[in-house]
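Recap slide: VIT family protein, sequence and predicted structure.
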Amino acid sequence: MVHHELHIVGTGTKLNWLRAAVLGANDGIVSVSGIVVGVAGASNSLSFILTAGVAGLTAGALSMAVGEYVSVSTQRDTEKALLEKERLELQNEPDAELEELAAIYERKGLTKATARTVAAELTAHDAFAAHVEAELRIDPNDLTNPWHAAYASAAAFLAGAMIPLLAIALPPASARVPVTFAAVLVALIITGTLSAHVGGANKLAATLRVVAGGIIAMAITFGIGRMFGVIGT
């Protein structure tokens, strides 16, 4: 009997790491820029602005790390469960597994006889490796690592968050918000272009979405900050 397995593509590739890094950096840029611009709208106190920014940076990085760790741990547990299930099926139902492997190659375009021959030869060489590669697309020697994912996610968020934090801290008070808007705009154009590149999407459309989202977030938080600043005076 031919049965269908869940296909999981390993996430340990460079492409996936780059995509996660770009998205993490983008989150850091948008989140912290919204915080510091919002506080700057309410107060000229650099200490208040930086306190809020550093708090947002720390909380965001930790949140990203924990979220990524939990997510990738679940992915890894699923991969391990599927690999163990495949081992048991190969031990208990070797004939059915051989037919399943042959059917996979037949669906890829081989004739029935050739598919059967290929499946038999691969099974004789290394049945487990042949099945997990063809059915599950999992490399047992390169399973997802939750700690690596957590570190990378936190580092990417921190890298992105430092841009608005430095942009708001370095200029004089009168130029803080305009400089931050400009720095964030440039940073979002870069991350939007990179995310489109690694995802194979339209660069202009993807970049416009990222930039528009960031600018809208900053505009709203700045407006809220100004409103509370006026109310508090």
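Confidence is low (pLDDT under 50) at residues 1-12.
The two ends are 76 Å apart (CA to CA).
(End of recap.)
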